[in-house]
């Protein structure tokens, strides 16, 4: 009885549905015709599919495939082989070129089966309907969804050519294991482009989308091979290939060569993704709005920015960076080699002096992607590493003093603040040079007091340290006393001023962002800021060189070329720093514990100096 009533429903509904479509279409001249109604309710302007984005190193090497939300590499219709198109049409929709988006006869057969089984077992979806489902809908099995699918399919057929619909379909469908579209599937399962596949391999891949879990070639290879052979037989029956060609295809050995997703240099890539957000925020006006917004508005703006970034990523972009793979590997390897101590961590940032580009970032020992990246996320007290930036360069600039001028290195007290030299040592009058290279504390505090705290910070502010606040404007800052401190990347970036005649420009990892066709989308346009004069820079460079040659950084000496820098040790031996430069690079190295603790036991080993030397050697 149920079967008989089902057939009656089908007989009644199908003609009515068909007549409705054609009848209302004929009334298109009325106030609001069927097509106008569809255009209003189902707005389809441009159909695009989310694609994979890429991050490239400075040498052009792809170092990361960013396949969120999907791993897809779209092909144009001309790049999809006619044979592959034949396979999908034969397997999925033999009347593809004849229908208007849905196959009435197929729907009738499916309805009969579904009503008889009291379930939705068959969908009778055309290629156009499947495309509509993949782009606009979900895979819920319901008659409401099915009706929406029919309407979207009809609209797609009105707006797009059959060739375009087939192209989008072959690019949209899921091939399991994260691969969407034939090109991503070809690269995943065979490590080659779809244009290089044999016909047997094309048929093998075409077997997957019908039921990606069942025909997953990694887990159920035999199932996939059996369906491939059934597809080949179908092609033979339709006389699209000869019996001889069919047998040859079926007998061809299919051997998977599974490609691992490219995801190299996690320390650097993690930072690039953070810088990507900053770049888009600046270029599209979000940053200015966020700076002025209240807490509630900030949350809303951040959500909008996240959505905008997702939209850009889905288009498929190429992020070209300045990464130097050799330097990156040296930095990461050195951290692991020099920091064998339990719970002791480290970070390093390397910047090209001439281009102001970040060429390497090491975020910690054995760093895993998206872990806490100490190179740009760890704000720590800088110790004496701040002295060249906050004390000595401003002092030389404001007083025109010479490096051999005298300074009092004896005890100092002001308003209850009484700093000590390292180890409680007491000195008398000494030269600025000696006070710098041996990192005496009381002279540094005196110098900042002489020029005025605000004058020192006026210079320091030009480097854009994110967590330096008004509370830090105190004499204790002269020897590294800050509320939050700086990151290794921030300090390294600031020190590039000593390699560029007193001019500062923010260091960036991203050179430019393009779409997949090479069209420029975003790039930085930072300008240089003059912080100090060349005379001041020459004096500080001289002092930093002497620090490496015979001062606190002797273990960082290099056999040839200029090398200069400044060490830093914080109270309680919690942090060890060395920030220094050569003719080509500036690097900042930090060593410490994530939860600050005493490291006096490894002080004599000077791991921060050895790591810096490892990176800068050769």
Description:
Helices cover 45% and strands 12% of the residues. By secondary structure, the chain is of the alpha+beta class. Among the domains are: 1-41 and 83-173, no CATH class; 174-262, Penicillin binding protein transpeptidase fold (Orthogonal Bundle), CATH 1.10.3810.10; 384-485, Beta-lactamase. The strands form five sheets. A five-stranded mixed beta sheet has the order 2-1-5-11-12. A five-stranded antiparallel beta sheet has the order 7-6-16-15-14, sandwiched between helices. A two-stranded parallel ribbon has the order 3-4. A hairpin with a 4-residue loop joins strand 11 and strand 12 (520-522). Helix 5 packs across helix 7 (162-172), helix 15 packs antiparallel against helix 23 and helix 17 packs across helix 22 (534-550). The longest helix has 25 residues, at 2-26.
Key attributes of the depicted protein:
618 residues, Penicillin binding protein transpeptidase fold, Beta-lactamase, five-stranded mixed β-sheet, five-stranded antiparallel β-sheet, 23 helices, 16 strands, 12% strand, elongated
Show the helix and strand layout.
Elements: H1 2-26, H2 34-41, E1 53-56, E2 62-66, E3 71-72, H3 82-92, H4 104-117, H5 127-136, H6 143-159, H7 162-172, E4 179-180, H8 182-190, H9 199-206, H10 221-237, H11 243-251, H12 266-283, H13 286-292, H14 295-315, E5 317-321, H15 325-338, E6 345-352, E7 357-362, H16 374-377, H17 387-399, E8 406-408, E9 429-431, H18 432-437, H19 441-451, H20 453-460, H21 488-495, E10 503-504, E11 510-515, E12 520-522, E13 529-530, H22 534-550, E14 563-569, E15 575-582, E16 585-592, H23 607-616
Parallel strand pairs: 1-5, 3-4
Antiparallel strand pairs: 1-2, 5-11, 6-7, 6-16, 8-9, 10-13, 11-12, 14-15, 15-16
Helix pairs in contact: 1-4, 3-9, 3-10, 5-6, 5-7, 9-10, 10-11, 13-14, 15-23, 17-19, 17-20, 17-22, 19-20
Domain Glycosyl transferase family: 60-235
EC number: 2.4.-.-
Subcellular location: Cell membrane
């Amino acid at each position: 009885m149920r079967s008989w009533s089902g057939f009656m429903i089908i007989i009644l509904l199908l003609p009515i549905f068909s007549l409705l479509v054609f009848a209302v279409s004929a009334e298109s001249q009325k106030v609001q015709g069927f097509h106008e109604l569809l255009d209003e309710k189902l707005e389809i302007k441009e159909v695009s599919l989310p694609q994979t984005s890429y991050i490239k190193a400075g040498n052009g090497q792809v170092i990361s495939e960013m396949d969120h939300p999907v791993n897809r590499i779209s092909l144009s219709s001309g790049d999809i082989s006619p044979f592959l198109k034949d396979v999908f049409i034969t397997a999925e929709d033999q009347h593809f070129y004849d229908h208007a988006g849905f196959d009435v006869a197929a729907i009738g057969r499916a309805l009969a089966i579904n009503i008889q089984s009291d379930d939705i077992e068959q969908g009778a979806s055309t290629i156009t309907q499947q495309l509509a489902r993949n782009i606009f809908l979900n895979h819920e099995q319901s008659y409401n969804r099915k009706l929406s699918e029919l309407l979207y399919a009809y609209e797609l057929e009105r707006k797009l050519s059959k060739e375009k619909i087939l192209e989008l379909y072959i690019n949209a469908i899921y091939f399991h294991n994260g691969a969407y579209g034939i090109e991503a599937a070809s690269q995943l399962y065979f490590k080659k482009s779809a244009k290089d596949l044999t016909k047997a391999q094309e048929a093998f891949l075409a077997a997957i989308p019908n039921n990606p879990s069942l025909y997953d070639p990694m887990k159920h290879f035999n199932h996939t091979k059996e369906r491939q052979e059934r597809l080949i037989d179908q092609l033979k029956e339709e006389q699209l290939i000869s019996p001889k060609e069919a047998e040859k295809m079926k007998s061809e050995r299919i051997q998977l060569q599974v490609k691992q997703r490219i995801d190299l240099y996690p320390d650097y890539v993690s930072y690039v993704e953070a810088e990507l957000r900053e770049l888009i925020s600046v270029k599209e006006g979000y940053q200015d709005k966020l700076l002025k917004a209240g807490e509630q508005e900030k949350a809303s703006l951040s959500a909008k920015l996240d959505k905008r970034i997702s939209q850009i990523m889905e288009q498929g972009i190429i992020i070209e960076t300045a990464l130097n793979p050799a330097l990156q590997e040296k930095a990461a390897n050195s951290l692991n080699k020099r920091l064998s101590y339990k719970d002791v961590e480290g970070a390093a940032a390397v910047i090209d002096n001439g281009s102001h580009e970040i060429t390497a970032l090491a975020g910690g020992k054995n760093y895993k992607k998206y872990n806490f990246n100490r190179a740009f996320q760890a704000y720590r007290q800088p110790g004496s590493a701040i002295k060249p930036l906050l004390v000595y360069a401003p002092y030389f600039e404001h007083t025109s003093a010479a490096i051999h001028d005298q300074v009092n290195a004896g005890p100092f007290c002001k308003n209850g603040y009484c700093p000590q030299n390292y180890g409680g040592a007491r000195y008398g009058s000494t030269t600025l040079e000696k006070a710098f290279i041996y990192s005496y504390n009381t002279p540094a505090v005196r110098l900042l007091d002489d020029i005025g705290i605000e004058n020192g910070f006026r210079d320091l502010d030009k480097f854009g340290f994110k967590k330096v606040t008004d509370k830090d404007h105190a004499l204790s800052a002269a020897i590294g006393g800050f509320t939050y401190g700086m990151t290794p990347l921030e300090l390294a970036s600031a020190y590039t001023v000593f390699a560029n005649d007193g001019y500062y420009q923010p260091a960036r990892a991203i050179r430019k962002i393009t779409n997949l066709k090479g069209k420029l989308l975003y790039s930085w346009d930072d300008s240089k800021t003059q912080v100090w004069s060349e005379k001041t820079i020459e004096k500080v460079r001289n002092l930093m060189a002497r620090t490496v040659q015979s001062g606190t950084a002797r273990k960082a000496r290099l056999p040839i070329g200029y090398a200069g820098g400044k060490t830093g040790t914080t109270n309680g031996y919690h942090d060890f720093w060395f920030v220094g430069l050569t003719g080509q690079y500036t690097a900042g190295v930090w060593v410490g514990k994530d939860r600050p603790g005493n490291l006096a036991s490894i002080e004599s080993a000077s791991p921060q100096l050895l790591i810096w030397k490892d990176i800068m050697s050769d």
